[in-house]
Amino acid sequence: MLPTRRFAFVVPYYGNWPRYWRLWAESAANNRRFDFLILTDLPRPEPIADNVHIVPMRYAEVSRRLSGVLGFSLPNLATYHKICDFKPFYGLAFADLLGSYQYWGYCDVDLFFGDLQPLVEAAESERFDFISPWEYTVGCCTLLRNEARVNQIALQIPNLRARLFEPENTFTDEGAISETAVLAGDFSFGVIANVAQELRKVKPFLAATATPDGRVVGMPGWFLLHSNDGRITLYDDDLQGHEPLLFHFMGMKNTRFWCDLEKCDLNRFSFTSYGITPGLLDPSLKHSAAFRARCLRAHLTGQMYRSVRNCIPHAIIRKLKESRRNHL
After folding, report:
1. Which of 57-66, 68-77, 210-219 has the lowest mean pLDDT?
2. Statement to judge: residues 204 and 270 lie in one domain
3. What pLDDT score was predicted for residue 206?
């Protein structure tokens, strides 16, 4: 039987454990007020904290549960990333796992958490139906009040079946569920007003997010941050530190950004526009020519790839994804 904390994140995960799994898991372990329910058919990784629960479940069972909630069979997935579109329905599909929780949520694993106490305080206030450290519900970190009216609102997303059958993500877990709840009325949101303005605060209620070109959304220039004993400090160009709730490195999952991972103490490391690096770098390095050159080199390959990909008509890319899905 799972421990009965008040808040839980649900994370179906299939394929292979990512190279940065231990970083995610240790940052989750630092936030003891949350349970993290990992639904997977992968072997249990060790070590793992007692608030990170491996729930053995094949993808076929996840699909069966979601189909039962939605009222139609799920399509084959072109990639496991498409499962992001089904996040808003976890509260219904996994109700048997979530009955004891006041809030449940969804999050990603291409991130590491800092101190999530502000998220706890927002939930403990019981003021909000949706809580997210962004301008709307965001896929990397959202909490939902565990009540039927909240759990069922995503079923009202317009053109839902068509969206879920699209081979690409349609962001039902982000703008779609937010817009649907706003239009329905009588739902409350604990979100921010503006990413750039929030990031100017010493302790922003924010999921700091890296883009594929090595920038942080809302902050100009290359970035440098410290992760130190469960807290994240992100430095701006004036070398002022800001402590976001988490760092979402979604645009920087390529191997070249993780070459030094094994050298790092995961309680004390830096993350920069060129990737993870051991120790706590002097923030003033941001102003050095060597730092800027290293960041630029790290992103040249990605910039070239995106330039070529942008020349390919979207219709062709979509057909390739549909073909891949149909052959699974």
Report:
1. 68-77
2. yes
3. 98
